[in-house]
Amino acid sequence: MHHANHYYGHSHVLARYCGLDDTDPPRLHGYLQHGWNIGDGLAPDHEYTPGVPSFLWSERTRRRAWSLGRRQGYVVGAPFAYLLAMDPLSDSDRREGTIWYPFHGWEGQHVVGDHDGLMAEIRRTEDGPVTVCLYWQEYRSAKLRRRYESAGFRVICHGYRGGWWRDLDPGFLYRQLAELRRHRRVASNRLCSAVFYGALAGCEPAVYGDPMHLENEKAAFGGQPRILREWAALHGPHPDPEAAHRIAVDELGADRLLSPAELRRLLGWPMPTSVPDAELTGVLTR
Amino acid sequence: MTELIGGEMTAWSDLDGNHGPAPAAGAEWGPLLGTATGHTLVAGPHAPALIDAIPAGQLTLLVRGVPDAESLAARYATRPGVTIRCGSLEKLSGAYDTVVALDGLDRLLTTESAGLTWDETLTQLLSLLRPRGRLVLRVENGFGLHRLLALPPTPADTEWVGPDGHTRPTGPDAVRARLSAAGVPVVRDYAAYPGALLGGEILADQALRGFLEATLTAAPAPSPAQLAEPARLITGALRHGLADALAPAWVFVAGPGPAGPEALIAAAPPPGVAAAPAVHAGPRASAAGSAGAAGSGDVAASAAGSAGVAGSGDVAAGAEEVRRDAGSRWVRGGGVPVPLGRTLEDLLVEAARRRATPVVRELLTAWQQSPAAGVPAGQVVVGADGVHRGLVPAGRPVEALRRLAATLIAGGDTHLWPSPADEAELTALLAGMTGRELDPRDAPAAPRPGVTSIRELTIVRDRLERELADARAQHEFYERQIAFRDHELKRLRRHNAVLSATVPGRAANTLVGGLKAGRRAVRAVVRRTRG
Prior knowledge:
The complex is a heterodimer of chains A (286) and B (531).
Chain A: H1 10-17, E1 31-32, E2 54-56, H2 59-67, E3 73-75, H3 79-86, E4 98-101, E5 111-112, H4 115-125, E6 130-133, H5 136-139, H6 142-150, E7 154-156, H7 172-182, E8 185-188, H8 193-200, E9 204-207, E10 213-214, H9 223-230, H10 241-251, H11 260-267, H12 276-281, E11 283-285
Parallel strand pairs in A: 1-2, 2-3, 4-6, 4-8, 6-7, 8-9
Antiparallel strand pairs in A: 5-10
Helix pairs in contact in A: 1-3, 8-10
Chain B: E1 2-6, H1 30-33, E2 39-43, H2 48-52, E3 58-63, H3 66-75, E4 82-87, E5 96-101, H4 118-126, E6 129-140, H5 145-148, H6 172-181, E7 186-193, E8 196-198, H7 200-204, H8 209-217, H9 230-239, E9 249-254, E10 263-266, H10 283-291, H11 298-307, E11 319-324, E12 330-332, E13 336-337, E14 342-343, H12 344-353, H13 357-368, E15 380-382, E16 388-390, H14 397-410, H15 423-433, E17 436-438, H16 454-501, H17 503-530
Parallel strand pairs in B: 1-4, 2-3, 2-5, 3-4, 5-6
Antiparallel strand pairs in B: 6-9, 7-8, 7-9, 8-10, 10-11, 11-12, 12-13, 14-15, 15-16
């Protein structure tokens, strides 16, 4: 329905959860929220077609969307939470250091800010090894990459987000989860999906440092000041990890995940062919 | 014996239901009449099945129309002690130990009467009651929910004078006071709904809400065309403690003697019929019809067809008493405990309106995992212990789900789910919420409901309007998508053409052509070899 449904391999993860071919997920009948959001769940430039449902991460987002006139919202939880449900955390995960996500722009956007100042603050705050994860645009800049590397950080990129059905990267979330499971802390200079993912994946989250800004950044739905007010408990170098985990569960709808049967029905996806009983009766108990 | 007492109507029948509401009938009234003693007067049109339930040895029946008198005379020709009086109430004389007026006071006077007010009619009726006699009287509620939901009525033949709204009591308290002043104190009064007579204590007990809701909403709508389906209003009235105030009618038992049961409900229909309570059309419907304002509905018409007597419901099918047992528990019939709690449908609709998806999911899952999975949600009472108790026999679970989907759609309670969701799709989605796989094409076919109430029609219209607008917008979206993809296709074909013209492109084409020719040659050889 919308190319953004396939960002970060989201639809691929859901296809796997639904028992379908995750190399080529079926067309998804609705709009799938693809990032943490303080508005109606979808990107500000998102085109809406009336009557097409939005599949949202959290109840809070659904309420907000309803208030904004988007009534076709249904809370399904974040694809990342489904991935974690399929590959649960283990006590044997060996965690060390911090994975740090500097605020980035998306395709065509540029971040303005003092990277050197940020690196110094990271160094001052973190006492273990630091992995810096850059968005593919920044990662492609050898100069920027070298700046972080020369500060002693390991620099990685989870992959392409994909768009318009090109450069789709079904492994994006898998790589991100694998990295989060290797780290004790997750941090960023802005509260974002990655911080919530990390908190859900057992990392101690932190949000600190110069939040930087995008060129011509427009503060939709209250912008950064509202985020600081409403989610104050997650800001600072050492927020309470338990409280943060609870908030992450809410924001990612990790307690609102659907059964494969319900999810398939909502997304307009077929039953897996490996369920022969279903063809006989149309009904089977999962 | 038939006697024309004066004022009789020679070409008139109240019993056939063609000139007004069907005559008073209701299986649940049987036990009230079963206690009638002494010389009993049945005043006004009553279904013969009700009269049959009266054990009194001496019985006088007052009707207005000669055909009705003849019909009753034929019916009771062999029953000793039955006298039929035909004419207007004010012409009737005598003294009776019991007076039964379950049709109310509106059909006791004829066209030949000068006309009396409601209160004067009551005085007239009471003058026939012996001292220490017993009165069983039904009073229609002029502000009952059947009136609130009624479309503007067309006056029936029987309404040559409209109902007297001036002296008619406006509530049970006023009737009690009036009868008490007349020396006939009320010992028990009931809110009279189709299929149920409910006393004050039972209505006050909130724990019985689910049971009462299931019982009252299972009765069919009294009239085919109305402002809204009554089920919603009944549910609301029970929740707000207004079930007595908004009852279609009240029944009063006055005079010395035992007070009678706390509540009476029409006994559960036999299995098979019970699986689809919404299509019942028996004695309950007739009671509702008689309470209606216009009244000549299809129930009366169809019942009148065979026997010439409308509303001849089978009282022998019986009524169940609801009472407290020795342990103060509510029991029905032979001692079956009445389930306490709310109906599953009420809980589900409330959760859906609150957009509490997880609660809806939990309720649906618990229901579908219980033995009551095949019982319609409106007939399942969920106790404080979480146990589901079905009030009717279970059918197929998927049919119960489909029925719930229909209820949610008809009530406009589908905001929780993405639209458009027709019944089959919503059924499949509800099944999905319980973790069950159901293809909408496999949802059982449901009979198309004849929606005739204005509110429900408005809901349908608004939904269709919205869906049409959405479908148009999506059509435009898909048009844009096709145009975009056509453009992409053309661009790719142009690229292909350009690439094919280059040296590597020509080489690739030659190679592919050669491979295809080779494959054809190999196949030809294989065919020849096999042949």
